[in-house]
Amino acid sequence: MKDTGWRIHRVLLMVFSVCVVLGSVLLPVHPVSAAAAGAKTGTTIEDVLKHTDDLKTYLEKGDLEQAAAAFSPIKKWWNANKAEVKGNSLNMSLEIEGQIAGISLAILSKDSGKALEKAGTLEFSLINYRDGAYVGNDGKQKMTLSAYILKLRGAADLVEKQKWTEAASEVKLLQQQWLTVEGDIVSKSATVYSNTERDLVLLDAYLASPEQRQQVKTVIDRMIDGLVPLADAQYTWVDAALIPIREGLEALLVVGALLMYSKKAGSKQAGRWVIGGSAAGLLTCIGVGFAVAFFLTSSAFGRNNSLINGWTGVLASFLLLYVSYWLHRNADVQRWKQFLAGKSSKALSGGKMFSIALLAFFAIVREGLETVIFLIGMVGKMPGTALAGGIAAGFGVLALCAVVIVKAGTRLPVRPVFLASSVIVFYLCFKFMGSGIHSLQMAGVLPSTVHEYLPEYAGISLYPSWYSTFPQLIFVLVAVVVLLAHRTSSKRTKVQTI
To answer: Per residue in 285-313, pLDDT tens?
Structure first.
């Protein structure tokens, strides 16, 4: 006879899949303005970019007469469409207006060098506008990975000119806009994804430290080298499936450990609390996903997402530390039998019930938010049927893994199951703390201070900053102390028995 709790859990997973599919496929993402701008003059944004390229070519040759001729249709396009651009983004409008005015003045004063510099920044702004790569675009356009790489190159140019304040501002903007493009990367290369997230914090730290600024250009070049091969990547249903699998496995391990814990203790009520916490986490993720899709821009949500990931990661890590300790402590068969005999009806009551529900909630929210945002980001990159099929396949694999974890866990002896679970949960505790602190640094809550002598491995959320390394080190020391104390206690018990 199938367990009722697991039926509910599978139903919730199916509902989540359906909601994400519908939310992703039916989102009202209709690119506007940049492609349409120019309708009044018959000149498209692509035409303007071609004229800009011609303008740069003539300026490089020093041919100001031909440069003025190439610049003329750009000015006409701008005069006809600046109101529309302003309606989409005041900041972008002011930026382009200033660049066009600067080119006009430079051509009049016959300063081809200054005009060429302004033409380069104008081209950069126009590409950003075409791709929606700017703040305040009310969510109707999305930044492409190519535009993000172009903005990285713009930051590198600022660094080469030693415009440190402007470069730092650009990096802050890139951190906020990371959420818009990270979905393009995560399914193609987990390594590039982890390394780029790490480097975004390193850039912030290096720019803030005069002694480390010479390393900024190297980091940007490294980021660009990693991202460029992915800029023109094609996406299939497999990529859509890998996102929930990759992001969901860690949350699944936490929820699976809690469900095993509940079943081993014979507490159906505890299982319901775990399922309830998971369901609340799923609904929160779906709600945030729809809010981002309908009401916010991904870039505007970027900092808030980092805050959510940061605080949930830190809080979940403390709860996971306790769960890891509890699993290890009760891995002793005799202690577990005493636990069941003396406290089976009361073992999981009151505050402990709420604690495991809260942990399940944090685990789901910590990983689920990025899953939903990633999937939203894949809209338009493949046919809707392929996206829906990939999402369904991904959550199907997760559901299968969940059944296997719990079924296998309940049939195996207590000691190996609890010891293995305690190690896995401690690893997640270690990782959640590191990634949580890292997210808070991305959000600007904590300083992005780094030290080269600290170990670094982004795959397990080990970053070269004392803000994340110190609490992780404390966790390791606590684990070592607990292991030594447990071993000493076991030896004393054996001696007394003899």
So the answer is: 777 767 655 554 444 444 555 676 777 77
Q: Residue 222: what pLDDT?
A: 92
Cβ atoms 247, 367 nearer than 8 A = yes
Question: Could you give the CA distance from residue 69 to residue 176 in angstroms, rounded to a whole number?
Answer: 39
**Alpha-carbon dihedral 290, 401, 253, 485, rounded to 10 degrees:** 170
Question: How many structural domains are present in the chain?
Answer: 3
Q: What pLDDT does 39 receive? A: 45
Q: Are residues 362 and 478 in the same domain?
A: yes
Residue 267 has pLDDT above 80, yes or no: no
Do 124 and 215 belong to one domain? no
- Is the same domain home to 116 and 187? no
Say if residue 102 is in the same domain as residue 224: no
Query: Does residue 186 have a pLDDT over 50?
Result: yes
**Does residue 346 carry a pLDDT above 50?**
no
C-alpha span between 106 and 114 (Å, rounded): 6
Residue 152 forms part of a structural domain? no
| Judgement on whether residues 251 and 175 belong to the same structural domain of the protein | no
Q: Are residues 122 and 162 in the same domain?
A: no
pLDDT at residue 241, as a whole number: 82
> Based on the domain organization, do 77 and 205 belong to the same domain?
no
Mean pLDDT of 186-193: 78
Rounded to an integer, the average pLDDT of 16-40 is 42
The more confident residue out of 336 and 359 is 359
Tens digit of each residue's pLDDT (9 = 90 or more) over 224-254 = 999 888 876 677 778 778 778 877 777 777 7
The whole model's pTM is what? 0.54
